Known about the structure:
With 245 residues, the protein is mostly helical. Helix content is 72%, strand content 0%. The chain has a single domain, classed as Vanadium-containing Chloroperoxidase, domain 1 (Up-down Bundle). Helix 2 crosses helix 6, helix 4 runs antiparallel to helix 7 and helix 5 packs antiparallel against helix 6 (148-167). The longest helix has 30 residues, at 2-31. The protein starts with a helix and ends with a helix.
Amino acid sequence: MTHLMTAQxxxxxxxxxxxxxxxxxxxxLTVNGSESVFWDNIAICVTNTFAWTLVIAMLLVVFxxxxxxxxxxxxxxxxxxxxxxADRLCSGLVKPLVARWRPxxxxxxxxxxxxxxxxRGGRFGFFSGHACxxxxxxxxxxxxxxxxxxxxxxxLWSLTTTFTRIYLGVHYLGDITVxxxxxxxxxxxxxxxxxxxxxxxxxxxxxxxxxxxxxxQKRDMYSLLAVIFFNYAAVVIFAMILGIR
Length: 245
């Protein structure tokens, strides 16, 4: 009797997973690609890490302007280790272990996916490294700065850059969703570790109406926001230029 109940539960679970996978496939095919060269170029630009070099440079300025060298280096070390752990967990462990095809590699739909510039990504896509890395960065920096406009902007940055992965057909929504969840967990964990170490090192924090609760100049927060939005505008302009060509 127990064996039959277990077999039935396994069958129902398998059927539920198949339905969920089918939904993921249909959603991806709906979102993937378009007839617009402009939006194609936007997706290609936004998904490229090098497109955000200006924002990365501004973050370095913020770190070193608002911390002593020891504190700034601790932040960089924490972020570096965080991204390394997130990447190894995703690409080194979970992707080969779960072995879920990317849409562009999935034998069932790969020839239905709109592929841009021949880009198909690696074989497996669960879970999304882009989603995990961008979200853990957004969460870590949000906790670090504690400035609501920056927090909202960073979360939106993670969502928009990761959406391009579905648009390009290299990830399912399920890959993205789990990547976000893992990114939140990893970001919170590494901020907790960073904060504990920072307190032990007695890193100074300035407190006034001109600073956030964690000691960052609000004018630097507004400068960071300006750079992020400028970077978005530059991506749009670049996509328009590529479209004209």
